[in-house]
Automatic annotation (TrEMBL):
Residues 415-452 form the SWIM-type domain. InterPro entries: Znf_SWIM. Keywords: Metal-binding, Zinc, Zinc-finger. PROSITE patterns: ZF_SWIM. This is SWIM zinc finger family protein.
């Protein structure tokens, strides 16, 4: 796993200070991006929380996921949550160390009081003393929230700087992109009341051995007002892979008003990802689970098709300048502004997702703007199938037999790639193992790229011939 060292430098440690009506939660920020450019300690919000206890417990849940590993538990995980200010709301995000769980707390406009919200993205310090203090917060007294340095302290930051050196594995970057690409295709599959949500979640197994039969995935099906566990994907079933990974939701059950479940319609018995959203007063907490507990999002391949297009890079550059830290990004609006077809805008957003520049909100069914400290080209370089497919294309290893088949020479073997109804299959071992459930293999990807190149060459030749005839 490729890693890079990333230093988070804070002006001080985040802390909960005061008591009674004078309590203040100060979240310190590290370097981040704002509309004005890069800032060492951006300030995004200073005001009151409408529901202090719900917000505190939601933030703790996001921090729980950032510090957790459900696979390869011997490796330590610790990356401070990311906060994005979208002008009317705050979003706190994290990824588990094993890359299998994505968490986000959206504090909506009705959850914030008394101040304007800024624009930008940065990390926030969540240390152990702060965690202990947050766990003791009640709703009895108002709580002031400050995200960023105190205005009076901006010019006097002469105290010791708190630094945290954390690893940024490339698979985490790919995980952010893959989870967003996958959830963009989800639908709302079930909704439970607060009472039923509490009953259902508290009854779930909390150890890996208890989830599913014979190591297989657990499924749930709507049954009246609740969800009933099952060991097979019956009609209407929703996959719940690794139910123990929903433990972080336990923190907010007392404040929950509803539970919403999102996912795809199952195609066979193969496990799928799913998203579990707890609705809170003025906010939402969502956990998105990878298809299996020992399988991170980074290898799902949902963004490969978008990354492999010839126009995606240029389109992404154009679309990126139109983003304005909006809480809701509509592809149709971007298409009108950029002059690009909606399909190319969606592909551009997918590519921007690989650089951490956009996220996807299931509740709003729309993208949102944020800026993580990643480079889109880095994600492409470290995606093995995409790198291998480009190499096959450069070597001339793809021979197009017709409109629906191709031969791809790879090593000492040749593989047959077929296309039917827009879907591609291959005779390689990858296809035999996953049947397209984890994106295209390198041979199918190279074939798709070769067909685009051939179609582009034909169009160019036709245009040139027409021009000469005139």
């Amino acid at each position: 796993m490729t890693r890079t060292a990333h230093t988070l430098a804070y002006a001080g440690s985040s802390a909960l200070t005061g008591s009674g009506t004078g309590r203040s939660l100060g979240l310190e920020t590290a370097g981040g991006l704002t509309p004005a450019g890069a800032e060492a300690h951006p300030r995004f919000f200073a005001g009151f929380l409408s529901e202090p206890q719900a917000a505190a417990r939601g933030l703790l849940a996001v921090a729980d996921v950032a510090a957790a590993r459900w696979f390869r538990r011997t490796q330590r995980a610790s990356l401070d949550p990311v906060v994005t200010a979208n002008g009317d709301r705050l979003r706190f995000e994290s990824f588990s160390g094993c890359c299998g769980v994505y968490a986000r707390l959206d504090v909506l406009p009705e959850g914030l009081r008394g101040a304007d919200t800024g624009h930008g993205t940065t990390n926030v310090d969540v240390n152990n003393p702060l965690r202990e203090a947050l766990s003791r917060i009640t709703d009895g007294d108002p709580l002031h929230l400050r995200v960023g340095p105190d205005e009076l302290a901006v010019t006097t930051l002469d105290g010791p700087v708190v630094e945290k050196k954390v690893p940024l594995p490339d698979r985490w970057l790919r995980g952010f992109a893959e989870s967003q690409g996958i959830t963009a295709g989800f639908d709302l599959r079930a909704e439970l009341t607060a009472t039923e949500a509490v009953r259902f979640l508290r009854a779930l197994p909390r150890s890996p051995a208890a989830g599913g039969a014979a190591g297989g995935p657990l499924w749930v099906v709507p049954a009246g007002r609740t969800l009933r566990p099952t060991t097979r994907p019956a009609p209407g079933a929703i996959c719940l892979p690794g139910p123990e990974r929903l433990t972080a939701l336990q923190r907010v059950l007392r404040q929950a008003t509803a539970l919403r479940v999102y996912g795809p319609v199952p195609d066979g018995a193969a496990p799928t990802a799913s998203a579990w959203e707890i609705v809170l007063p003025g906010m939402r907490l969502t956990l998105t689970l990878s298809p299996e507990a020992d399988r991170g999002f980074s290898g799902e391949g949902s963004v490969l098709e978008a990354l492999a297009t010839d126009t995606a890079s240029e389109d992404a550059d154009l679309v990126s300048v139109l983003l304005a830290w909006e809480p809701r990004i509509e592809p149709a609006d971007l298409a009108a502004q950029s002059g690009l077809p909606v399909e190319r805008v969606r592909a551009a957003l997918t590519l921007l997702g690989t650089a951490g520049k956009v996220g996807y909100d299931l509740a709003d069914a729309s993208w949102f703007h944020r800026e993580l400290p990643y480079d889109a080209r880095r994600a492409e370089r470290h995606n093995p199938r995409l790198v291998a497919a480009r190499a096959l294309l450069a070597e001339g290893a793809v021979a197009l037999d017709g409109p629906a088949t191709a031969q791809v020479a790879s090593g000492e073997r040749r593989y047959l790639v077929r296309e039917s109804g827009g879907a591609m299959s291959c005779t390689c071992q990858w296809w035999a193992d996953y049947r397209g459930r984890r994106g295209p293999c390198k041979h199918a990807l190279a074939t798709r790229m070769a067909r685009r190149a051939a179609a582009s060459a034909t169009t160019t030749a036709t245009t040139a011939t027409t021009g000469d005839a005139r």
